[in-house]
Amino acid sequence: MNTPTAILHVAVPCPLPGTFDYLPPSAGALPQPGMRVLVPFGRRKQVAVVHSVSAHTTMDPARLKAAEQVLDDTPLLSDDILRLAEWAAHYYHHPLGEVLAAALPVALRQGKPAEMPPPDWWQPTEAAQKEGAVAALKRAPAQRAALQRLLEQPQGQEAIGLAELGGNWRHALAALADKGLARRCAPVLPEPEPPPPLNDAQREAAAAMTGALGGYQTLLLDGVTGSGKTEVYLAVIRDVLSRGLQALVLVPEIGLTPQLIRRFRRRLPGRLAVMHSALADGERLQAWMAARSGEADVIIGTRSALFTPLPRPGLIVVDEEHDLALKQQDGFRYHARDLAAVRARQLDVPLVLGSATPSLESLHNCQQGRYRHLRLGRRAGEARPPAIHLLDIRGQPLEGGVSRELFLRMRQHLDADGQVLLFLNRRGYAPVLLCHDCGWVAHCPRCDARVTWHHRAARLRCHHCGHERRVPERCEDCGNADLRPVGQGTEQLEQILQARFPDIGLARIDRDSTRRKGAMDELLDRARSGEARILLGTQMLAKGHHLPSVTLVGILDCDQGLFGADFRAPERMAQLITQVAGRAGRAERAGEVLIQTHHPEHPLLQQLLRDGYPAFASASLAERAAAALPPYSHLALLRAEAVNADAPREFLQQARQHGLAAGAGEVMLMGPVPAPMERRAGRYRAQLLLQSPSRSALHALLNRMLPELARLPTARKVRWSLDVDPQEML
Ligand code: ADP
Ligand code: ZN
Ligand code: ZN
């Protein structure tokens, strides 16, 4: 007799929506929701997650395949993570299997066992604490760095903490053990360093957050750079830990610096699990497992750490909430800040968003009374806000993009023992290579873009697709040899500064100079120690780093940001200027910020300088309201690309017809139009924008439209994707 069999509804990572039905494996216990199973899928086997188990299937049960293997003894993903993933799959119209795959560390996605290595704690030996022990390791920099780190906590620390040093830190640790300088020890929780007394504004903000513990609420901590936001987080997290609860802290990649992690480690009486992209898969798994088991009290990580299971949730913090890096820009395009709000509500814990330049979305939510607005108006400690001035460079001679006036001010600050930071958001030597004879300009063969000249590497590189080639000796058009760079990048600026200030140490920070693991920290250390007194770089340098001796900040070119095609360009420009300016005068010395521009009367610049970011933000919100742009309306962007130039537009045209036929109602369908840079990496790109005053109307239309799109005859000729709440219109 046939008893009704259990049917597994399984989320398989693949581009198809929904779950797939399988029979349980023939032997063994029935898998539960949240466990991983290995299932046959097409011609391959896939690691997938059991979403639910029921007695029903819409398929013919006789034709169902059985899962081959159950990979976990207990559910790996808790019910709340499954619900969060489901919510996200629905909201972003993305396949549940891919959402759940994104929620898992790579090792688990690949089917590796969910094991946690036993705790591994180390301390320096007595010999290591003798004078000269560190100096004796002069020839072994990795061992020296590891020993220095161990000496910071003589009672002992977790080995995994050394992973931030990069390189082969395990090897370094083993070498120290061989030399009798380090040894394993029992787990100890070091005594945290005492906090500074909070100022009134910090105390008020911390009290509001502490008062919110135990329920859901979103609080926006809107505090100028250096106002002590991090101290407020630390104070509240201490409270969370004292209640026996966990705190999850999300930071954009660039903000998750070793300095920040060390500050958290030194200051919090609990175990820290760190998750960032520089970790090896095994190390990441270890952090994830420590969070899930409840052994880690504080989890600090980038975007995807949002999906970490927390058995004792108490608080979620998203720092630098305005940062674009919190939004995933391909595949499952979620916004970690927005999903954090969903998760906080599910877990019934407060969410703290922090920024010196909050996004217009979050400020709007405050105005609507959905978020609580907490302000830190002044810098903590003694630091004063910098004086900001515009430098009109119209008609001025420039060298490497620097005006005489700026050189003069640099010299004055350097003579007064100050440090100078120059911001130029363009890496390479020159963005354009031009033939002086015929006007030919070097282009990327695969993109609608010019290639950047990288002088030291003697290469032309496309910053959009990775194409590169040797710098030609002659014009590729007329054969003449008079090729000239136009415009400047950081590499050229560095060369010019070296010539101008030969005795002064320089540190250039951009994607090229920091490619090697650990290079960024070495450069920042040179800056902090005062060895480098001129710092120059791209936006990598603009964010989060505490550089107390910088007294002059120069922004070489803010004009590109004033005329961006994207409606968010002014917001981003204002945030960038404010953040870069925030690097000046963070300690007791007053700072000065000089912004070079050809458009000194530009209303955005004027307002930002006169009234500051909050006033700029209110005015921008009023403009957005008048133009019915987000946050006063909701967007979704349907993108398509293909090698064939016409296919994307044809597909999107058909998509548009379907949308209209499905009854667009309040939703406006705009386009299709070519993407701002139509061809990238050899593919033509187009987009269709959906805009609606009502979020639910937009999603209802998408729900009707999307299933049809996969069936369009043109769908097979393009790659297409949907971006809900797009942050960039590229
Ligand atoms: P933010 O996160 O807003 O940029 P931080 O918390 O990093 O600010 O604080 C900026 C600097 O001011 C740090 O050096 C910090 O140690 C110091 N600081 C913050 N709060 C206080 C305080 N209450 N008393 C003294 N120094 C403080
Ligand atoms: Zn030529
Ligand atoms: Zn290219």
Strand content of the residues, in percent?
Answer: 15-25%
- The end-to-end distance, rounded to whole angstroms, is 60 Å
Kindly report the average pLDDT value: 91
CATH C-level class of the largest domain is Alpha Beta
Under CATH, the homologous superfamily of the largest domain reads P-loop containing nucleotide triphosphate hydrolases
The ligands found in this model are: adenosine-5'-diphosphate, zinc ion
Q: Gist?
A:
With 730 residues, this protein is of the alpha/beta class. The chain folds into five domains: 7-109, PriA, 3(prime) DNA-binding domain (GIY-YIG endonuclease, 3-Layer(aba) Sandwich), CATH 3.40.1440; 121-185; 200-376, P-loop containing nucleotide triphosphate hydrolases (Rossmann fold), CATH 3.40.50; 387-428 and 489-625, P-loop containing nucleotide triphosphate hydrolases (Rossmann fold), CATH 3.40.50; 634-724, Ribosomal protein S10 (Alpha-Beta Plaits, 2-Layer Sandwich). The mean pLDDT is 91.
SSE topology:
Blueprint: E1 7-11, E2 20-22, E3 36-41, E4 44-54, E5 69-70, H1 79-91, H2 96-103, H3 106-109, E6 121-124, H4 126-129, H5 141-152, E7 157-158, H6 169-178, E8 182-185, H7 200-212, E9 217-223, H8 229-242, E10 246-250, H9 258-267, E11 272-275, H10 281-293, E12 298-301, E13 313-319, H11 336-347, E14 350-355, H12 360-367, E15 371-376, E16 387-392, E17 398-399, E18 402-403, H13 404-415, E19 419-423, E20 432-435, E21 452-454, E22 459-461, E23 468-470, E24 483-486, H14 490-500, E25 506-509, H15 519-529, E26 534-537, E27 550-555, H16 559-562, H17 569-581, E28 592-597, H18 603-626, E29 634-642, H19 647-661, E30 668-680, E31 683-692, H20 695-709, E32 719-724
Bound molecules: adenosine-5'-diphosphate and zinc ion (ZN) (2 copies).
